[in-house]
Each structure stands twice: as C-alpha cells, then as structure tokens.
From TrEMBL:
CDD domains recorded: NAT_SF (cd04301)
Gene Ontology MF terms: protein N-terminal-serine acetyltransferase activity; protein-N-terminal-alanine acetyltransferase activity
Single GO cellular component term: cytoplasm
Domain (N-acetyltransferase): residue spans on this chain: 21-180
Name assigned to this protein: GCN5-related N-acetyltransferase
InterPro entries assigned to the protein according to its UniProt record, in alphabetical order: Acyl_CoA_acyltransferase, GNAT_dom, Ribosomal_N-acetyltransferase
Biological source species: Jonesia denitrificans (strain ATCC 14870 / DSM 20603 / BCRC 15368 / CIP 55.134 / JCM 11481 / NBRC 15587 / NCTC 10816 / Prevot 55134)
PROSITE patterns in the record: GNAT
Keywords, alphabetical: Transferase
C-alpha cells in the first residue's frame, strides 16, 4: 500500500465515487451512526466487534484503528456516505501481502437490502486491483452469514472454503467460510 498512498490520514484517503454514494475518509461526524451500526445484533453476530459497543469504542476506532491503519499503510478503511454525506457503512481492505488484500464490509441497518454493499465493494475492489496492485482479494465470514456470502458471490468471489471452528467472534470459535477473487476474474466480470 505504501507506494500509492501519500501523506497522513485523512488527507491520504482517496474519494472514490459510486452511483449515489462515495467512499471517503471517516470523520468525527460519523461517530453516532457507527455506534448505532455496531450495536445492531446482526453486526454483533457476524463481525468480531467489541461488546458492549459504546461511544468511546467508536472514538477509539476512528482515532486509533482507522487513522493508524492508513498511516501505517496496513489497511484502507473507507466510510460509505450518501449524496448528503450521511454515513452508511464501512468498507475495508487489509493488506495481507504486497499484492494480496482482504475485504470486509458492514452497513448501518437503514442502508441494507438495496444493493449498496455490492456496489460499494465493486468500487473498492476496482481501486484495489488498479491502484493498489492487488492480484487476489480474500473474503471470509462467519458460516451462515448468507447475505454476506451472496454479496461475495455477486462480486465474483469463488467461495469454496469451509474452516470448521476457525472464526473467533463474541468469545467463541465458530465455522468460517471464505473465498477469493482474482484480478483477472474481476476484470472479466466487471472490467477495470
Ligand atoms: C452483509 C451486508 C454488508 C450486506 O449489505 P447489503 O447492501 O444489504 O447487501 P446487498 O443488498 O448488496 O446484497 C444482499 C444480497 O443478499 C440477499 N439476501 C438477503 N437476505 C438473504 C438471506 N437470508 N439468504 C440469502 N440471501 C439473502 C439479497 O437478496 C441480495 O441478493 P440479490 O441482489 O441477489 O437479491 C449487510 O447486510 C450488513 O451490514 N450485515 C451485518 C454485518 C455483516 O454481516 N457484515 C459482513 C461480515 S463478513
């Protein structure tokens, strides 16, 4: 990531435009909706989040995890916002190697069910494949997260891995499902 990201957070975060939304740097104005999103039972079940999730947790996420991830070039964490700049969710790309990344997504409950995760992930993946030099991107989820699986499949991920007892969430290990998407497969399906 280090070759293509210039400067410090938040200036280093590119603005990636989609149809009716933008991927941008997280800001303090997103905090309230991040708390609502991360207290949601589905988010708590399917994403390894702290519990309870408080305003202080969200503050640490913004100032520590997000800013530090960009500054250390370890992970690119985008906020998804609508045309009036309301926070809708987060999209992340974690560096696993110089050309290998892992994608993660989470939406505020009121932004789900209208194709946003798929559309926003497509924008993030195109950026990863064209700007970051990604060759393969990993997706993984708690077994039984059918919506996340559907999003990954629509994006073109080949979701063939099942790892019993491998995903740690809410204090226990549960089954993990996973898959990968190559640059060539993304290009064939969506273009670059
Ligand atoms: C997973 C999540 C990001 C998906 O966001 P979204 O914008 O609602 O997803 P999309 O609308 O792009 O796609 C959802 C797909 O799942 C399908 N779906 C919905 N409920 C489903 C179910 N119970 N079983 C199977 N598929 C389902 C939808 O029909 C849609 O597919 P389609 O376009 O072919 O009809 C969002 O639901 C979320 O934040 N969930 C909680 C956190 C989470 O699970 N994050 C992922 C961790 S890996």
């Amino acid at each position: 990531m280090s070759e293509v990201i210039c400067g410090e957070f938040p200036e280093c975060v590119p603005r990636l435009r989609g149809d009716g939304f933008v991927l941008r740097a997280h800001g303090p104005g997103d905090l309230e909706r991040i708390v609502e999103q991360c207290q949601d039972p589905l988010a708590q079940r399917f994403v390894p989040l702290p519990s309870p999730y408080t305003h202080s947790t969200a503050h640490d996420f913004l100032t520590g995890y997000v800013a530090g991830g960009w500054n250390r070039r370890e992970h690119a964490e985008f906020a998804i916002a609508d045309v009036s700049d309301t926070y809708l969710g987060s999209m992340s790309l974690k560096a696993r190697d110089h050309d290998r990344y892992e994608i993660g997504y989470l939406l505020h409950p009121d932004a789900r069910g209208r194709g946003l995760a798929t559309a926003a992930a497509r924008v993030a993946l195109r950026w990863a494949f064209t700007e970051l030099g990604a060759q393969v991107v990993l997706w993984r989820a708690v077994g039984g997260n059918e919506v996340s699986l559907r999003v990954a499949q629509k994006l073109g991920f080949e979701c063939t891995s099942l790892l019993p007892g491998w995903f740690y969430t809410q204090g226990e290990y549960v089954d993990e499902v996973g898959g990968t998407l190559t640059r060539a497969r993304f290009e064939a399906q969506w273009g670059l």
